[in-house]
Amino acid sequence: MSGSTFGTLFRVTNFGESHGPAIGCVIDGCPPGMALSEADIQPELDRRRPGTSRHVTQRNEADAVEILSGVYEGQTTGAPICLLIRNTDQRSKDYGNILDTFRPGHADYTYWRKYGIRDPRGGGRSSARLTAPTVAAGAVARKWLKAAYGTEFRGCMTALGEIEIPIEDWSQTGLNPFFAAGSSKVAELEAYMDALRKSGDSVGARIYVEATGVPVGLGEPLYDRLDADIAYAMMGLNAAKGVEIGDGFGVVAQRGSEHGDELTPEGFASNHAGGVLGGISTGQDLRVSVAIKPTSSIRTAKASIDRAGQPTQVETFGRHDPCVGIRATPIAEALLALVLMDHALRHRAQCGDVQLSQPPIPGQRG
Amino acid sequence: MSGSTFGTLFRVTNFGESHGPAIGCVIDGCPPGMALSEADIQPELDRRRPGTSRHVTQRNEADAVEILSGVYEGQTTGAPICLLIRNTDQRSKDYGNILDTFRPGHADYTYWRKYGIRDPRGGGRSSARLTAPTVAAGAVARKWLKAAYGTEFRGCMTALGEIEIPIEDWSQTGLNPFFAAGSSKVAELEAYMDALRKSGDSVGARIYVEATGVPVGLGEPLYDRLDADIAYAMMGLNAAKGVEIGDGFGVVAQRGSEHGDELTPEGFASNHAGGVLGGISTGQDLRVSVAIKPTSSIRTAKASIDRAGQPTQVETFGRHDPCVGIRATPIAEALLALVLMDHALRHRAQCGDVQLSQPPIPGQRG
Amino acid sequence: MSGSTFGTLFRVTNFGESHGPAIGCVIDGCPPGMALSEADIQPELDRRRPGTSRHVTQRNEADAVEILSGVYEGQTTGAPICLLIRNTDQRSKDYGNILDTFRPGHADYTYWRKYGIRDPRGGGRSSARLTAPTVAAGAVARKWLKAAYGTEFRGCMTALGEIEIPIEDWSQTGLNPFFAAGSSKVAELEAYMDALRKSGDSVGARIYVEATGVPVGLGEPLYDRLDADIAYAMMGLNAAKGVEIGDGFGVVAQRGSEHGDELTPEGFASNHAGGVLGGISTGQDLRVSVAIKPTSSIRTAKASIDRAGQPTQVETFGRHDPCVGIRATPIAEALLALVLMDHALRHRAQCGDVQLSQPPIPGQRG
Amino acid sequence: MSGSTFGTLFRVTNFGESHGPAIGCVIDGCPPGMALSEADIQPELDRRRPGTSRHVTQRNEADAVEILSGVYEGQTTGAPICLLIRNTDQRSKDYGNILDTFRPGHADYTYWRKYGIRDPRGGGRSSARLTAPTVAAGAVARKWLKAAYGTEFRGCMTALGEIEIPIEDWSQTGLNPFFAAGSSKVAELEAYMDALRKSGDSVGARIYVEATGVPVGLGEPLYDRLDADIAYAMMGLNAAKGVEIGDGFGVVAQRGSEHGDELTPEGFASNHAGGVLGGISTGQDLRVSVAIKPTSSIRTAKASIDRAGQPTQVETFGRHDPCVGIRATPIAEALLALVLMDHALRHRAQCGDVQLSQPPIPGQRG
């Protein structure tokens, strides 16, 4: 069944393959009357873009977005917004060896078994390149949420391999190639990545994203809870293997006397919950962490089989991210924005206007 | 917007409140021609049922399920199956103090802010009691999946507070009150819980669930990936704060050379991925962990506010689980079954018959 | 795939069989804070109820509705509302002869071919009895729409067989067994039906429904147009074979100079369009007609086959409506209300508050 | 809410405006492994294309379709198929007068009231031009259905204004500008249209479409009946005001003894039902009629108001179809194909392989 649509009311339908003529998405359900142009979207695509440092894939894609519909004289009309990104740098020869063999850790095997056919060029549909339309759609959601509620999103890398990266200074995230929120670890990360790249190996990472200025009351229990949809979004990020909200797996060893966030007339006194209670936003900051596995494309030979089931060896050359986690930060921000956007519209449908976290219950204090 | 339906093709719509006349669900989309009676469902409800040991809430509910529709002469007809569970032990007095104040860590505040009204009796709609219909629906899915593909589900507790519980012997999970897969830690867990209960506090837990005999090819990228939907399901479990698939957060410090599961003519040589690649099942076992926060209902006083925004203190007496994680195991199994069931039907819609993991690529070897 | 849910945001999931223990529905997405009790719903069920005159089936069902969830202290909470109607008068012997043969004009054959199994008792799932939960859900929608916008619904029969029934006086519809909007034809209709019943035959009918006080702007083109969803709803009415909006099939022979409704500062000057332009409500009255085929259960023998494909003859005795169109009026009103309710919430999600047809463009004048 | 997606499993998301840079759609859920190229789609677009005779709009659009995704080496991969059609002949000056006034019978007023903004160029989103992507998607569905089940679609005009057009010879539909299934009325229709065009007026029409080789068992009651979804599709056709299935409004005056189609070992003896019983396909031909209103763009002045609510007069010059019904035939065929395609996949999801109408119950005999 069709699974390429994200959201229920702010619906993003993603299309395209890594080495096809174009990728893109159609956003259906965007509120009318919002100023929108390519200039609102391109900066987010540029943050995710390959080729921006030596630590990411050297594929050279401008990722220039074109708005094909849904905007008239600079304003959204309520009609579907088609965003198109032409592919320009497809070197199919890089991927010739993967037509007949299944790369370990990749989706080659599962796509082939599921569909009986797969587009092997650059990973085809399973390429991380398909996160670009998600990021583009996220930019539209971010603009609307900021104007409507003052909601903002930011993310950073908090671990790369064994290296923990503390959050020291959010203003640094755009100033280093790792989305590190601070400069103290950057030199260590550079050296680590250079060594890794030489060894032909790859490594995992942990990403943290948060939203501030979140309206209270978003989330649709019993099942479509805000935290459930955040988990869906984040685990759908290529290479994600774990998602935490608030204290995450830290809650296992916590006591209730320690965990439950107290309320005061000025707001919540702490935020162990990560901004969600009972599946509904509290108005506090949303706090989310995601574990990203090491890139599966490595130069080290690994055992595999070919389409006939015969044993073979696979080494992957070509242009790859040695840590896919590095470019995951803007994608995770976009996904969080898409979840909130959809839930803002869902809330409005059933309950009317969205409530901001105003006093006397002003949201997060701590 | 309506958020009480789980699934897209095997649709479970949940209704009811903790202290209303009844709870239940309607399953729409169940394949016709499957033998089904209450006896197929009741055992799973009994595993989740309150009052089965001194370590869980002492509320006494038979949780007797009644099939109201969709079955004719013992067989499913393809029509919606309504499952009804009457509530019998509603002591509303236990909850009188929560009408006007917001219990820290609970959904009281968010429900009130979202809807402007809430049913405070026993947590109303946000009570963990509403997992019973989920478990009942899961039992229907389990029966179908087992008959169709041989798929089976099992789960256990792997940590309670600081105590790690190794998986030693799956046959033990039904023989102790903790769903521990082994007996070596049971005495320690008993003592721990007794002390906790006396202290009036609560504690978190970690749950592990797995599916065996999984068909290959389930999952609908780009967004409705199997792992994304598993994360949605598990994070929607009451009190869940984290979800891992395969090696989970362990991947952060892994190398690609270590993580990628090699393929051999006899199947995969390992299962770091947890049974999903590119959002599609590999045919290996699905491996999922969930972090459950400590119960928010504790006897220790905590600061809060009332509906007028004035400061107050909240202590929660009454009948509660000091570790909600204990009863979470059968619920997590049911959720995993519902995800697989829905994806089995989704796959069949687009791609035709589901493929089992037969040789020459026989699924997991390791 | 599951097809028993009506609506996208005000979702009504219908369950039950004609001769099972109960029928009912779950409404998910109802706005919170509306006063609601069984007394709001029962009168609409009573209008649809069998056994109210000699011209309809003599099955005796109280159709007493019970609210099982979603209401606390007389107000909707935003949680799903389960409405349950117990079946009380199931004489299965009436239907014994239809187990093995397919009644011409009935769903026996198609259900059997689709599902490989069918519940033959009283038509099982395909019985018109299953419109009762639709009517019950419609009553909830009607209450909300009236309070929110002043929207009201009314319907009448405009033809029974060859007899055209003019709309003369809406206050008469509840005072005769035919939902005729006037008394001038009632005696003729009584005689017609008495003769028909004696002959063992059945007849078709045409139903007209309208909504007044309709907000402007409801409908979600490109595909989910208001008129498209009205057609879906009405053609889904048991035995419906045609739907018209506004001038309906009369437009075929019209000129554009005649058809297009002119606008004036006081509103539209006519309503050929039936209240919809471009798939969106104009604020004028919605005008809908439905053709209902003659009941397929007749005492005249007709040729058919049995499950082995062998020829046979079928006569249907038992309790049937000789004109199913008679009881269709309240059902059609309910369906129109459900469509408008869903579209009111859909509109609000994307565009914010619904606009009423205030001056300077006050809706229908003519 | 987003309403630009047609279907639930074979999902077609439509985007674009009449005078924007491009129109198109994304098809999600197409089965993999089907040969597909632009050559499969273009002929259907050419049938719908403007400018093919003097009786339709003289806008000159090549309507050349480009497949942007979802096809690899000439085969569908199961990934979303994006179909793009560039707009080439946008003379915005033709429509300058409609920016500030609301054309009677058009969607100008309702779009403006709904969204607070509208793209007036060529009708923007409400233009009949947006049926082109629907036709393109329909071509994909038609190819799959024909290969899988032998299902085929054909349509014709059966009335233009007062002129009834009998179905005499299906092979004629492509040989005259009216999709008339016979040549006997063509000269009369030519003369009629020439006179109409000179008068500056427009006229309505009735369209008939049918499907042959329909699998038995398609349709998802209780609500998502096949006939309900056909009505939704057809009433969503621009300018449609009525839909009939089988005998349609003719059933009002029928007796049950006459209407119910008898079954014989060789199949059904007649087809009053139009191929649907109980909302499920019988395996007989599907028979559908649609009433199309006269084009609202006429040269005759009509009263209207401007955006300030002041009275004005509107005459519409420019390039218009004097009978939009003429080009509706291929669109209606496409819509019927899309409905059947979606239901074929829905059926397969719940019930497994679709059954063809084989003996001993071979579908329609009469």
CATH superfamily of chain A: Chorismate synthase AroC
- Net shape of chain A: globular
CATH topology title of chain A: Chorismate synthase, AroC fold
* Strand arrangement across the biggest beta sheet of chain A: 1-2-3-7-4
Domain module tally of chain A: 1
Give the integer mean of the pLDDT values of chain A.
91
Strand runs of chain A, count: 18
Question: Which oligomerization state do the chains in this entry correspond to?
Answer: homotetramer
Write the CATH architecture name of chain A: 4-Layer Sandwich
Helix count of chain A equals 7
Distance between the termini of chain A: 45 Å
Q: Please report the two chains with the greatest interface, counting residues with C-beta closer than 8 angstroms to the partner's C-beta.
A: C-D, 117 and 117 residues
Q: Mind telling me the CATH class of chain A?
A: Alpha Beta
Radius of gyration of chain A: 21 Å
Strand content of chain A: 15-25%
> Helix share of residues of chain A?
10-25%
Major beta sheet summary of chain A: 5 strands, antiparallel
Instruction: Return the string of H and E elements of chain A.
Output: EEEHEEEEHHEEHEHEHEEEEEEEH
Binding site for NADP(+) (chains A, B, C, D): 48, 54
Region (Disordered) (chains A, B, C, D): 41-60
Protein name (chains A, B, C, D): Chorismate synthase
Cofactor (chains A, B, C, D): FMNH2
Description:
Chains A, B, C, D: It is an enzyme of class 4 (lyase). Chains A, B, C, D: One of its GO terms (biological process) is aromatic amino acid family biosynthetic process. Chains A, B, C, D: Homotetramer. Four copies of one chain form a homotetramer. By secondary structure, the first copy, chain A, is an alpha+beta fold. Chain A has a single domain, classed as Chorismate synthase, AroC fold (4-Layer Sandwich), CATH 3.60.150. Chain A is 25% helix and 21% strand. Chain A has seven helices and 18 strands. Chain A has a five-stranded antiparallel beta sheet with strand order 1-2-3-7-4, with helices on one face. The first copy, chain A, has a five-stranded antiparallel beta sheet with strand order 9-8-10-16-11. In chain A, helix 1 (38-48) packs across helix 7. The model of chain A is unreliable at 358-366 (pLDDT under 50). At the C-D interface, strand 1, helix 2, helix 5, strand 11 and helix 6 of C face strand 1, helix 2, helix 5, strand 11 and helix 6 of D. Strand 11 (240-245) of chain A pairs antiparallel with strand 11 (240-245) of chain B.
